[in-house]
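Message: I would love a firmer grasp of how sequence relates to backbone shape in proteins. Thank you; the sequence and its tokens follow:
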Amino acid sequence: MSKETDGAGGVEDARSSEGVARLLHPVDTLLAILILCIVAWLYYETTQFEEVSDLLTQNIPPQMFPRILLVIVALLALVMPFEHILLKRKGKDIDKDRRAPVKRIAWVTMAALVAIIIAEQWLGTLLTMVAVCLVIPLLWGERRLRFVLPFAVFFPLCVAFLFSVVLGVYFDPGVAGVSIR
């Protein structure tokens, strides 16, 4: 290992700083910190939910499900800076694919999803799911409508049935008023 001199003329071992650099991936560490900040803010937001009477709660209170998801995201974010170590042992370079620019379809997909989510308050939950299941496969190049159309209709219906009827979760019908109940 290399030796460096400190300002007072002493020799400092550079192993400790190199060890940390090898242990934590710098890009993933910054991304994990950003994700953890967002998770902390969203977790705080769950503390602002209105209190629901115990008589009206079904199994778990409304703030519990988002908190469970946020804790899972936080745990995955904590692992992210160390992922390069696991991949290096398998002979993979985590930065290899990152050198290529993000493809245009990724930006188009994000824009489509944001537009559909913005329209959710008018479409309602069920029609929003139908729109996503219809638009995304078409954006990604699927042209066989005999597969896309049944998927866009039946998958959201199954999800809505499971959540609305079986689990008793309320889905916003939106201005269109379409829902299962």
